Amino acid sequence: MAEEELPPGGKVPVFLGLGSNLGDRRGYIEKAASMIADVEGVEWKSLSSLLETDPVGGPPQGDYLNAAGELASSLSCRELFGNLQEIEAELGRVRKVLNGPRTIDLDILLFGDSVIEEGDLVVPHPRMCERSFVLEPLCEIAPGMVHPCEGKTISQLLEELLKKRTAASRDERGET
Predict the structure, then answer these.
(1) What is the pTM of this model?
(2) Residues 78, 102, 127, 165: which is the catalytic one?
(3) Which end of the chain offers a freer environment for a tag, N or C, measured as fewer CB atoms within 10 Å?
């Protein structure tokens, strides 16, 4: 589906990653979800449970709370992306250090079956298949959603990632 095409009913299913590791992490995620629900053209559908995880990359920092959200949007992906960046800014997100700590991180993981590469906007999220902190909460709310590039469901992607991690862990311990 091209980015500007809308399905019957005029809304595209969208899946977001939400994360926070500064201050009231739960509060920031809940406030972000509420603010997203208030965006015109967006219908909030569901929020996964929260998952506490170690930070990946970047400088030393506190643990994250992560979640996935589902919404339906009549906005273009670019318009939604702009709204999410405004919400991040309103909630105190400062972009000083790559993968640094943040009050809130809002990522578009999937925008229907669109594949978009427009500079700072890349969908599906380019590293989502490598990150259990993305796939686990996403699998909770959309296990059968198919990744448009991988051609696999979210639950299949999570299962593959967990198998790779188990194999890598065995290799590190010298097990076969």
Answers:
(1) 0.88
(2) 102
(3) C
List, as one string, the DSSP characters of 136-154: HHHHHH-TTPBPTTT-SBH
Q: Catalytic residue at 105?
A: yes
* 93 noted as active-site residue: yes
| Catalytically annotated residue among 24, 25, 95, 105 | 105
Confidence of residue 3 (pLDDT cuts 50, 70, 90): very low
Q: What is the DSSP string of 105-140?
A: EEEEEEETT--EEETTEEES-TTGGG-HHHHHHHHH
* Residue 25 designated active-site: no
Q: Is the pLDDT of residue 169 over 90?
A: no
Instruction: Look up 127 and say whether it is catalytic.
Output: no
| Catalytic hit among 93, 113, 165, 170 | 93
Please report the pLDDT score of residue 125 as a whole number: 93
Query: Residue 153's pLDDT is what?
Result: 97
Q: How confident is the model at residue 54 (pLDDT cuts 50, 70, 90)?
A: confident
List, in order of start, the domains of the chain with CATH numbers.
Answer: 12-126 (3.30.70.560)
The terminus-to-terminus CA distance of the chain in angstroms comes to 44
